[in-house]
Design a protein that fits this description.
heterodimer, A: 292 residues, Cytochrome Bc1 Complex, Chain D, domain 2, two-stranded antiparallel sheet, 12 helices, 4% strand, disordered N terminus, B: 499 residues, Immunoglobulin-like, five-stranded antiparallel β-sheet
């Protein structure tokens, strides 16, 4: 090693040193290759060319456009158009096919589910959850309990026109605020809440007068929820006898619901999404597993 | 190398054993940038030149003609032996087909390649640089073309010194034409690895090939022409990382192209050597004829010891051997030799050879193990596969009658070249109801899924049970797919989650 250092420093290398020395190791002043310098100049020329061709310099209220008139927005538009063209044939098939046909044709089903997954994530997931699992007050789309019906046509109808959305063809009807609006007294509501819990076999408060609850239920709730509490899809009244609760099964939540009422809104997507996307969404939601 | 230089210097009257370092002389007025010194390598003939020609013919032959080799894979796959199908996401190599998720085979190949490079270096120095590197091979080819048109070293030098004339311009034009032709063919062969070669050639000839093909031919033409025609040794000296790494990996037992200063020094002319011998004084075998320097494609003087620019191509060995044979001295004054043996010979000791060293054994073992693992996994890899992903939201669904359902995305792979019908079986949860969205029901009750040739398919699978489950239970499930022949069955594990 020692000799190697000596050799490098020997006059025969014909290379001077920079005058720097660290622990006896001296830095040779080896010149860079000249082409490297030209390459450096070339990058400067390239930069100037770039300024001329592409947008680069910020001006007072805009920026220099560049002779190519290139815009990233235009690139996105081109890419989207290319995507539409590429999807064109399948989109046309999807537009032609009925919802039932889509589900029974594997090729269409895979395409519709892929399209639906994207549209669901963009539009529906904020309320219904990324996998359609729902949340308190936002229906779970993967179970077999449907407020407005779970066939392909009914799902499509709900997506297009919504519920309590202000759309003329949207679903109407809401849970009145029996307590707040003075239709029922507090102890009536407590009784009816116990009765409602008993419908699906849940425990009731000790000493609860279920007969009184049943009477109040028949007078006030049965018109929408049905005499047996099985619900009604025409007004979106939930089935109270099953294991699924939109807001929760505990007594306090039920009392709160009867006192204040409910009226969650599903927007009408008809004006926002194109018909093919809504078809894909209907198929996607239907194939979560709860579809009828 | 090091002691050699010291001896060389001493012989030239330079004091190498001077006490203390020479005074520092800052060279402030030297040039900051250095023009490339044009190299006119002289043609040589001999063992290493023949070896290099053989490597060049074999290497370039494989590169240029491999895309045209056909391989019958049946109706559902391309018939090109070596094909990188980027849009189809497949790599075909004769009987091997690689899917994107099998990229670890490439990782293995890269590790083997690196270890082979290290092993070659530990055994015989820069074998890669001297004989195999594309930069060396194409430069060699370009130098051959240059020699053919502009003449060998002396003729070429003389022509360049004579200034411009019509003849020189014509020669230059001819040289660059052939260089560009080779470069263009190189780029052309490159793109043939990425598409069906006959179809693409037809498309290129009728200007109907995709734009990307023309762009890549253009890029490869430019780089080949520039790197092999103009940059040459500059690539090795300034651009390539390997010379730097190589210097750190070599040791005193590695064979390298070495000037045997123990024999060559002190170098003297033939005449003077005779006089010295007559007087009973020592004279080395080197007659300082500079043939080794003239033959070098990197323009280095091997006699100053190994250096970064030396690619160890062995052409200086051939050049020196020719001279030694002519003057009747033993050949291999420049030879593949080891640092330790040069030193030992100088001290009058017998040379020692240590091929089996820790590092060579280690490299060989790593190469063997990785190659064996790759061969084993390749030989035993399956033609089908199944992956299962449990729904992340919701983790479970309670149905209106109290039943619990879990959803899964089941991804089935069919690597065979025919459509396969898979039956799906799920075990671990007796009496569970299994439903495949979009799947048909088989006669014996298992849902079946068709997957096309060389394709994969994802289906949604719902598992429902009415069993009473412990709260927050997690029950292990096994998903098995059985192809219609029943011969192959792949399985994957997942869980059934209870509320």
């Amino acid at each position: 090693m020692d000799d190697r250092t000596k050799k490098q420093d020997a006059p025969e290398t014909q290379v001077g040193t920079t005058g720097h020395e660290w622990d006896g190791i001296r830095e040779l002043n080896t010149p860079l290759p000249r082409w490297w310098l030209w390459l450096f100049y070339a990058t400067i020329v390239w930069a100037v060319g770039y300024w001329i061709v592409y947008p680069s310099w910020p001006l007072l209220s805009s920026y220099s456009n560049g002779v190519l008139n290139w815009h990233s927005r235009a690139v996105v538009a081109t890419d989207l158009a290319a995507l539409q063209t590429a999807r064109g044939p399948m989109m046309a098939k999807l537009a032609q096919a009925s919802l039932q046909d889509i589900e029974t044709t594997p090729e269409l089903l895979d395409f519709a589910r892929a399209l639906g997954r994207r549209a669901f994530a963009d539009n529906c997931a904020p309320c219904h959850g990324s996998g359609g699992g729902g949340a308190k007050g936002y229906p779970n789309l993967t179970d077999d309990d449907w407020l407005w019906g779970g066939t392909l046509a009914e799902i499509s109808q709900t997506i297009t026109h919504g519920a309590r959305s202000g759309d003329d063809q949207g679903h109407q009807g809401s849970m009145p605020a029996f307590g707040r609006d003075g239709m029922l007294k507090r102890d009536d509501i407590v009784s009816v809440a116990d009765y409602v819990r008993s419908l699906s076999g849940l425990s009731t408060t000790e000493g609860a007068d279920l007969a009184r609850g049943a009477k109040i239920f028949a007078d006030n709730c049965a018109p929408c929820h049905g005499p047996q509490g099985k619900g009604s899809r025409s007004v979106g009244a939930p089935n109270l006898t099953d294991q699924i609760w939109l807001y929760g099964p505990d007594t306090k939540t039920i009392i709160d619901g009867v006192w204040n009422g409910h009226g969650g809104v599903m927007p009408a997507w008809g004006g926002k999404l194109d018909p093919v996307t809504i078809k894909a969404l209907a198929v996607y939601v239907h194939t979560f597993g709860g579809g009828e | 190398m090091c002691p050699g230089s010291a001896t060389a210097l001493a012989s030239q009257g330079v004091t190498a054993a001077q006490p203390g370092p020479p005074p520092l002389e800052p060279d402030d007025n030297g040039p900051l940038y250095e023009a490339r010194k044009k190299i006119y390598p002289q043609n040589v003939s001999g063992t290493f030149r023949r070896l290099k020609w053989a490597m060049l013919v074999v290497g370039l032959g494989i590169y240029y003609f491999l895309p045209f080799v056909r391989w019958d894979r049946g109706p559902n796959a391309p018939h090109q032996a070596v094909l990188i199908d980027i849009p189809g996401r497949r790599f075909y190599f004769f009987f091997i087909e690689i899917w994107p998720q099998e990229i670890y085979y490439l990782t293995g190949l890269l590790i083997i390649a690196a270890m082979t490079l290290f092993l070659m270096n530990a055994l015989a120095g820069r074998v890669w640089c001297g004989y195999l590197c594309p930069q060396t091979v194409w430069t060699d080819l370009y130098i051959a073309i240059e020699r053919w048109i502009e003449g060998d070293r002396r003729k070429h030098l003389k022509r360049d010194q004579q200034g411009w004339s019509f003849e020189r311009a014509a020669r230059a034009a001819s040289k660059h034409f052939w260089w560009l032709m080779i470069a263009w063919w190189t780029g052309g062969a490159w793109v043939l690895y990425f598409a069906d070669a006959p179809t693409l050639i037809k498309g290129l000839a009728t200007f109907q090939a995709p734009l990307v093909a023309y762009v890549f031919i253009g890029i490869l033409t430019f780089t080949t022409y520039t790197l092999a025609g103009w940059m040459r040794e500059q690539v090795c000296i300034y651009m390539c990382p390997w010379p730097r790494i190589q210097a750190a990996l070599t040791d005193e037992y590695a064979f390298n192209v070495t000037y045997r200063y123990d024999r060559g020094e002190p170098r003297t002319s033939l005449k003077k050597a005779a006089t010295l011998h007559a007087e009973g004084q020592a004279a080395g075998d080197c007659i300082d004829c500079l043939q080794c320097v003239y033959a070098c494609p990197s323009g280095v003087d091997i006699r100053t010891g190994p250096e970064l620019a030396c690619i160890q191509c062995g052409l200086c060995i051939d050049a020196c051997d020719a001279v030694m044979a002519k003057i009747g001295r033993p050949t291999r004054l420049i030879a593949y030799d080891t640092d330790v043996n040069i030193e030992r010979r100088r001290e009058g000791l017998e040379p020692v050879y240590k091929i089996v060293r820790t590092r060579t054994v280690l490299y060989a073992v790593i190469i063997t193990v990785i190659a064996a693992v790759m061969a084993y996994t390749m030989a035993t890899r399956r033609n089908d596969g199944v992956n299962v992903i449990h729904d992340r939201n919701p983790l479970f669904v309670r149905l209106s009658d109290g039943a619990v359902r879990n959803g899964y995305a089941v991804h089935i792979l069919n690597k065979t070249l025919e459509t396969q019908r898979f039956a799906l079986r799920i075990s671990g949860l007796p009496d569970a109801n299994v439903e495949v969205i979009g799947g048909e029901l088989h006669a014996n009750g298992d849902p079946v899924i068709d997957v096309g040739p060389d394709q994969s398919r994802e289906v949604r699978v719902l598992v429902t049970t009415h069993q009473r489950l412990d709260p927050e239970a997690s029950i292990p499930l096994t998903f098995t797919v059985v192809s219609s022949e029943g011969a192959v069955a792949a399985s994957a594990a997942d869980h059934f989650l209870a509320p």
